[in-house]
Amino acid sequence: MTPATPNRLLWTICGLTSLALLVFVWSLSAGAVAVPVRVIVNTLFDLDGAQQGFIINRSRLPRSLLALATGGALALSGVIIQALLRNPLASPKIIGINSGAALAVLLSAAIAPGLTLNWLPLVAASGGILAAAIVYAMAVLRPFSPGRLALVGIAIGMTCDAGVDFILATSDMYDVSAPLVWLTGSLWGRGWQHVQAVWPFLALLATLCLLLSYRLDLIRLGAVQATGLGVHVSRERLVLLTLATLLASISVSVVGVLGFVGLMAPHIARQMVGGTHRGLLPVAMLVGAILVMFADAAGRAFFAPLEVSAGILTALCGAPFFVFLLLTSKTEVRE
Questions:
Q1: Which CA distances in Å does 272 have to 9, 275, 283?
Q2: Cβ atoms 96, 127 nearer than 8 A
Q3: For 220, what's the count of Cα atoms within 13 Å in the CB-facing half-sphere?
Q4: For residue 215, which of 200, 195, 231 has the smallest C-alpha distance?
Q5: What is the rounded distance in angstroms from the CA atom of residue 182 to the CA atom of residue 148?
Q6: CB 278 within 8 A of CB 126
Q7: pLDDT digits (tens, 9 = 90+) for 40-99
Q8: What are phi and psi of 44, to 5 degrees?
């Protein structure tokens, strides 16, 4: 796909940033109690007039910020994984990273119920890294085609999902409701403590990925060409895969398994600006953030007073999208 010109890239980023801002404001307004934009502005900037401090500052603002951060992180992770595996069907969920992180979090909750929130990103990262390490080992020890490697990831994810089901089935039934909601990819009940637990890590990891974007373009040329240009391909792949795994795992630790965001956002972004990662990464981040914020707000607004998890809505959109990719990406998968 032809890379976007600098002007087109700039206009795309500006347009998506404006759209993200609009969706962010709507996410603050949407819910069982609709809050007018004027009240939102008064509350955020402490202006004279009607305010909704509890609803905005203590409930919707932190979960909207989490949706923004985790959506961008999952999209960024998806771009990197698709580039490294050379598979347009790959994503953190499909190759088992999300499921590995979820299993680690639930296992830690079962073994150490008193574990504080600040430890969850580390626990989730360990589970995601273990799942990714198995996929990486398969790729190194016995090279598969990109399509078969994705199947290995799916098998790992299903194994982790079985572990999750076992923990839930053997837990006290009165303690199961909260993990079940979390596993659907929900931002319900998320507050400032969750934002503080993950924002520094996600911001640092995203910055590192953006700085290494040119490495992805070099790796995409092929191992021989990249090595000739002075790139240590194996090391760079390991570093980038680790960053992508951490981004997805830390996101899972606070919002659960948000499926298909890491699959859809990279493809939507690629249609906008082409495949050059210097522009693709920031655009995909914006698309992922918009998708999760919109799904979270729509789950509150369209079904009020009930709340539908963002992960359910992204899955309803992502499953047909995945089938569409299967039907249209046969040539790329067999490369």
A1: 8, 9, 8
A2: no
A3: 17
A4: 231
A5: 30
A6: no
A7: 999 999 888 888 888 999 989 999 999 999 999 999 999 999 888 887 878 898 888 999
A8: -65, -35
Q: Are 280 and 75 in contact (CB under 8 A)?
A: no
Give dist(CA 142, CA 324) in Å, integer: 29
Instruction: Give the residue carrying structure tokens 């699959």.
Output: 263
Residue entry with tokens 């500052």: 57
Q: Tens digits of per-residue pLDDT, 104-137?
A: 988 888 888 777 777 888 899 999 999 988 888 8
Q: Say how far apart CA 187 and CA 140 lie, in whole Å.
A: 37
Query: Burial, 6: exposed, middle or buried (Cβ in 10 Å; 0-12, 13-18, 19+)?
Result: exposed
Q: Could you give the CA distance from residue 13 to residue 143 in angstroms, rounded to a whole number?
A: 37
As given in the structure block, the two tokens for residue 134 are: 């198995």
Map tokens 């992204």 to a residue: 314
Joined tokens for residue 36: 């007018």
The model's pLDDT over 165-220, given as tens digits with 9 standing for 90+, comes to 888 888 764 555 667 777 778 888 888 999 999 999 999 999 999 999 888 888 87
Examine residue 146 and say whether the peptide bond preceding it is cis (omega within 30 degrees of 0): no
15-21: long-range contacts at Cβ-Cβ below 8 A with a sequence spacing of 24 or more? 16/283, 16/286, 16/287, 16/290, 17/286, 19/286, 19/290, 20/68, 20/286, 20/289, 20/290, 20/293
Give residue for tokens 């398969």: 138
Nearest alpha carbon to residue 251 among 300, 286, 213, 289 = 289
Spatial distance between the Cα atoms of 84 and 334, rounded to a whole number of angstroms? 15
Q: What is 65-113 written as a DSSP string? A: HHHHHHHHHHHHHHHHHHHHHT-TT--TTTTTHHHHHHHHHHHHHHH-T
Report CA-CA distances (Å) from 16 to 26, 275, 287: 15, 17, 7
Q: Output Rg (C-alpha) for the chain, integer angstroms.
A: 20
| pLDDT surpasses 50 at 273 | yes
Give 200's contacts (C-beta < 8 A, 6+ positions apart).
Answer: none
Residue with tokens 């390991």: 238
Structural domains of the chain ordered from first start: 6-333 (1.10.3470.10)
Per-residue tokens: 86:
């050379």
CA distance 144 to 135: 10
